[in-house]
Write a structure and sequence with these properties.
The structure holds two protein chains of two kinds. Chain A is of the alpha+beta class. Chain A is built from eleven helices and 13 strands. Among the domains of chain A are: 47 residues, Uridine Diphospho-n-acetylenolpyruvylglucosamine Reductase, domain 2; 123 residues, CO dehydrogenase flavoprotein, C-terminal domain (Enolase-like, domain 1, 2-Layer Sandwich), CATH 3.30.390. Chain A has a five-stranded antiparallel β-sheet with strand order 4-5-10-6-7. In chain A, strand 6 and strand 7 form a beta hairpin. In chain A, helix 3 crosses helix 4 and helix 10 packs across helix 11. Chain A is globular. Chain B is of the alpha+beta class. In chain B, the strands form eight sheets. A seven-stranded mixed β-sheet of chain B has the order 3-7-1-14-11-12-13, sandwiched between helices. The longest helix of chain B has 28 residues. The chains are: A alpha+beta, B alpha+beta. At the A-B interface, strand 11 and helix 11 of A face loops of B.
């Protein structure tokens, strides 16, 4: 197996174009597991550790451009304000050591349905885009179109992930995950919720609940509708319990979970409904507080 | 009795033995581990770090099926790979082709059939581990896959489902697919007349999943061919001499040509009692004439050692209205998997300890182990007593509910004490403070309610609750474990102790074959030498077969057994030294002792320095220590003086359960245990902490999931063990009520805490949820969508 260490982004793109089967590796928290278990034996690894610009992020106040290999630890420390959902998810990733190495770019590259960053990216709104680059140029893949199947994504063989563009949160965001222990656990299932008061929409993301991470579109529309109908975006008034319950049911219905060693399909649906109700309650309480603060 | 605390070691009033030498690093002191700093710094050499000039790497090809006939094995493609030095199948085994701890039923390499998923079929030696793995993958095995025998129903109906071991090849201790069976009947058994005396009857069927030892250091070792035709093996194991006994006939060598040295062991918990890579590495070394190293990866490790027996336990308890047990009628079925391993002894423990630490006038108990095509099961910390404890303690809770009685009160009312009769007819002849241990854990203050920080709530940083659905529960349990090898086994240990002068200072060298697996044997054996010989400098010689057997590092026995042997050898050294003094100086004192490197008379003070007495010479003595003999259990009634010593621990678990999501956080796990004498109090507390957490793991997460004989989660990604965030504060209350039969009055401490923590945690979850919960580990599904009935 070849081990390629480009020093620059251009060099990385050139190498990837020359050897499209080369597997990019940054923190190695996914790739090394696959290699150690002998699940794949690529002809080459493309180590992106030497490409400095992948490890940084920038923001214009509206959108955060998150470099592909910014580790979760830095997302927690530096981006909890603009990207609260992603930061909450980052806290649940692996162990401190894994969070020091793992990154959103790696999560996207692996495209596992269990990746913790997918649900908050899906929930953060339609503006979320994966910046895919190759020697042919750069294109922006909307997050909705990124996940194609179990561990399959929309990148072309010669493309690398440069960054993810994520709109700065315009409302409360939450992330919740089920694991059968209190740390270092792969999600049995996960749920992310984002309220978008600016355009009065709702964002959701489901993890470990289908072959790909996915949104619960019907649930989003139902909730946005219920909030609009009751004038609740303006009032921040109490949510009807029936709305929360229905929202939970629709989230559960959006899942296509399986039975596996981590949990049963039935449990996953149940837990998604519970997490949906709870995260909605937390987001709505926070939204109400924000309204009060801005009124005062 | 004093304030409990994490290090709250409380001295009992019944210390029979006074330690004469109050050595600051001797018996009773929390001496530091000699290997502690190396381990913390990551500098300790484990068996996986072994290296030899010119060595090859060995690996095994393992069966992908649980039950299959092998039509053919073609190794030619593997042998043709550059860098491959040997590919061996059963046809290349020079001696016996099977081995086993108690029953020799396990092939070194599969012979014409495989009986479990992961059974080794061939082994390869190559100059690089990756080459070895690729060569193994290139071996073509033609399997005829058969329907595996996986369940109790299938195993008990061989006419319909077949035999795991054909009758002509059966080597078990019963017949059919039953590997071993032990009944225990006392008080005339449980007759209709006995049943009629019970006012309240509770029944339950309990299940225990397959737990793994999950030691961190994978199976590994290095075999070096020797010029005399023998082999030197460096390996992480639990019992050097029993490895050798099994290996020599397979290798076609006399035992003295199989020399084994202990390499650094990264945990054991029973999982290293059976052979793993030992014979394979030696066969490859013999064939190639080169040193061969074998290191399992994590996945192979899950296939490379036995697990804790999954069990189905059916219990019926009858009691009077005032909460006195009248009878226990029980049947315990243990899944032994494909090979015997230590199943017979596990069955003996389950049967003889199966009613728990309670006085029960009438007992009818049957325990059996089955052969199946599931992974082989054998020794794991708690050894048959763990499964039984989950069942009988669940029953006691159920009985307390039926009687509307406090569950601790019910247990105390029926608890054994010194003088009680066990169902085997054995009278407990040393302290058995069961009621007191329960009283102590119950008297501890309860922890405060969880705060708003998610890290204190079920799910923790997963952020699944901010308090919604969280209900607290408290549960209690107590257990009984035997110490040392039972049922008439000739259990002994050997120690060689040398006293010499190094740099003008007396120094002792302790040489045993006891495997240090992390438990701290090297610490306490040194403490004993310091106390007995009054010296500061003690060196522990590396464990090897150059000295007699120490027996296994299991059954909570090494402080007792090898500690006993070290003490005997030290006494002999001391006497030899005094004899020199008598011969040289004409001493007539009968009040001599060793202290501070000097021979001291109680009446006349210092008589001579040890260095002066020894001159340039040394004194060396080897002694064998045996515990008092036990008896086999009667095959039909289970009667007999079966156990050397009993060990007791009680737990109180406090849990918070998110009842909507089925997530559990153990908030606190308090323990009280009698250890007779804490030879090293800090190590004792460590054992109680570690054992309790292993029991917590079984309660809420640890399980090897097997489906149709296939292991589904052979990795630490999906075989979950508690992390530090799952490990609650653990107040420990240590009693020291001396056992007059044991060295220093000590009581083996390593296993008892593993028993009762599981049922205590589950009891607390029941209290929080109102669910019956008959199975461990308890999974989130069991508390939510697949809820059992409440009750």
């Amino acid at each position: 197996m070849e081990f390629l260490r480009p020093a620059t982004w251009d060099e990385a793109l050139t190498l990837k174009a020359e050897l499209p089967q080369a597997v990019p590796i940054a923190g190695g928290t996914d790739v090394m597991v696959e290699l150690n278990f002998d699940r794949r034996r690529p002809p080459a690894l493309l180590d992106l550790g030497g490409v400095a610009e992948l490890g940084g992020w920038e923001s214009d106040g509206a959108v955060v451009r998150l470099g592909a290999s910014v580790p979760y630890t830095r997302i927690i420390e530096e981006l909890s304000g603009p990207l609260p959902g992603l930061a909450l998810a980052a806290r649940t990733v692996g162990s401190p050591q894994i969070r020091n190495r793992g990154s959103v770019g790696g999560n996207l590259g692996a495209a596992s349905p269990a990746g913790d960053s997918h649900p908050p990216l899906l929930a953060a709104g339609r503006g979320v885009q994966v910046e895919a680059a190759s020697v042919r140029g750069t294109r922006l893949i909307p997050i909705d179109a990124f996940y194609l199947g179990v561990k399959r994504h929309a990148l072309e063989p010669d493309e690398l992930i440069r960054a993810v563009r994520i709109p700065v949160a315009d409302g409360p965001q939450q992330f919740s995950k089920i694991g059968t222990r209190n740390a270092m656990v792969i999600a049995v299932c996960a749920f992310a919720l984002a309220l978008h008061p600016d355009d009065r929409t709702v964002g959701t993301g489901l993890g470990s609940a289908a072959p790909t991470p996915r949104r619960a579109v019907e649930a989003e529309e139902f909730l946005a509708g219920a909030l609009a109908e009751g004038g609740l975006w303006e009032s921040g008034g109490a949510l009807d319990g029936a709305v929360a319950r229905r929202f939970g049911e629709l989230v559960a219905a959006a899942a296509s979970p399986i039975d596996d060693v981590r949990g049963s399909a039935q449990y996953r649906r149940h837990a998604l409904a519970v997490m949906a109700r709870r995260t909605l309650a937390w987001c709505w309480a926070e939204y109400g507080e924000r309204l009060e603060r801005s009124a005062a | 009795m004093g304030a409990p605390g994490p290090r709250g070691v409380l001295r009992g009033e019944k210390n029979l033995e006074k330690i004469t030498t109050d050595h600051p690093h001797g018996v009773g002191a929390s001496a530091a581990r000699p290997d502690g700093i190396l381990k913390v710094r990551g500098e300790f050499a484990y068996s996986s770090d072994l290296w030899a000039e010119d060595m090859l790497w060995g690996t095994a090809l393992r069966a992908p099926h649980a039950r299959a006939r092998i039509r053919s094995v073609d190794v030619s493609a593997a042998l043709a790979l550059p860098g491959v030095h040997a590919v061996l199948t059963h046809e290349d085994v020079p001696g016996r082709r099977t081995y086993g701890l108690e029953i020799e039923d396990q092939p070194v390499l599969a012979v014409d059939q495989v009986r479990y998923h992961g059974e080794p079929v061939a082994v390869v030696a190559a100059d690089h581990p990756e080459t070895a793995r690729r060569a193994a993958a290139a071996i073509a095995v033609d399997y005829e896959v058969l329907e595996p025998i996986c369940t109790e129903e299938q195993a008990l109906d061989p006419a319909r489902y077949g035999y795991v071991h054909a009758p002509a090849e059966y080597r078990g201790k019963a017949a059919g697919n039953v590997l071993h069976r032990q009944r225990v009947v006392s008080g005339g058994g449980v007759t209709d007349a006995v049943r009629a005396r019970a006012d309240v009857v509770v029944r339950g069927e309990y299940r225990v999943g397959m737990q793994d030892q999950a030691f961190l250091g994978p199976e590994s070792g290095l075999a070096v061919p020797a010029e005399d035709g023998g082999v030197d093996l460096y390996v992480a194991t639990q019992w050097l001499h029993v490895d050798r006994r099994q290996m020599a006939p397979v290798l076609g060598l006399p035992e003295e040509k199989v020399r084994i040295s202990l390499a650094g062991v990264g945990g054991a918990f029973g999982g290293r009692e059976d052979l793993s890579m030992q014979i394979h590495a030696c066969l490859l070394a013999q064939r190639t004439g080169r040193p061969v190293k074998v290191v399992y990866g994590r996945e192979e490790s899950f296939f490379g050692h036995v697990h804790r027996h999954p069990a189905t336990l059916r219990y019926e308890h009858g009691a009077t209205r005032d909460g006195r047990l009248v009878y226990v009628d029980a049947r315990i079925v243990l899944d032994g998997g494909a090979y015997a391993s230590s199943s017979p002894a596990v069955v003996g423990n389950a049967a003889s300890l199966g009613v728990g630490p309670y006085e029960v006038p009438h007992v009818s108990m049957e325990a059996l182990a089955l052969y199946t095509n599931n992974p082989p099961c054998g020794a794991m910390r708690g050894f048959g007593a763990v499964q039984a404890c989950f069942a009988y303690e669940s029953q006691l809770d159920r009985l307390a509910a039926a009687l509307d009685m406090d569950p601790v009160e019910l247990r105390q009312r029926n608890a054994v004490r010194e003088g009680s009769l066990m169902p085997t007819g054995q009278r407990i002849d040393s302290p058995a403070p069961v009621a007191e241990l329960l009283r102590r854990v119950k008297a501890l203050p309860l922890p405060p309610a969880a705060g708003p920080d998610v890290r204190e709530l079920p799910g923790a940083l997963s952020n699944s609750t901010h308090g919604e659905g969280v209900v607290r529960g408290v549960g209690y349990a107590v257990g009984i474990k035997n110490v040392g090898f039972s049922e008439g086994f000739d259990d002994y240990s050997t120690a060689r102790v040398r006293l010499e002068v190094i740099g003008g200072e007396p120094a002792a060298m302790v040489h045993t074959a006891a495997a240090e697996v992390g438990q701290g044997g090297v610490t306490v054996h040194g403490q004993i030498a310091r106390t007995e010989l009054g010296v500061e400098r003690v060196t522990i010689h590396p464990a090897d077969t150059g000295v007699g057997s120490a027996g296994s590092t299991s059954a909570s026995r090494q402080t007792y057994m090898t500690g006993g042997a070290v003490r005997l050898a030290c006494e002999a050294v001391r006497e030899a030294l005094f004899a020199r003094g008598r011969a040289r100086y004409g001493w007539t004192h009968d009040d001599l002792s060793l202290a501070g490197g000097k021979v001291v008379s109680a009446a006349d003070g210092v008589l001579a320095g040890v260095a002066e007495l020894l001159g340039g010479e040394y004194v060396e003595e080897t002694r064998v220590y045996r515990h008092r003999p036990t008896q086999p259990l009667h095959p039909e009634t289970g009667q007999g003086f079966g156990h050397v010593q009993y060990s007791f621990c009680a737990h109180r678990a406090v849990v918070d359960v998110d009842v909507e999501l089925g997530l559990v956080r153990v908030v606190e796990l308090a323990a009280a245990q009698d250890v007779g004498r804490a030879v090293n109090p800090s190590a004792v507390v460590g054992q109680i902490h570690g054992g309790s957490v292993q029991g917590l793991g079984l309660a809420v997460m640890e399980e090897i999931q097997v489906s149709e004989g296939k292991v589904r989660n052979p990795s630490f990604t999906d075989y979950l063990i508690p992390t530090i965030l799952d490990t609650p504060p653990q107040p420990v209350d240590v009693l020291e009520l001396a056992d007059p039969h044991a060295p220093y009055g000590l009581r083996g401490a390593g296993e008892a805490p593993t028993l009762s923590s599981t049922p205590a945690v589950v009891s607390a979850i029941r209290a929080a949820t109102g669910l019956t919960l008959d199975r461990v580990p308890v999974r989130p599904e069991h508390l939510t969508v697949q809820r059992p009935p409440t009750g």
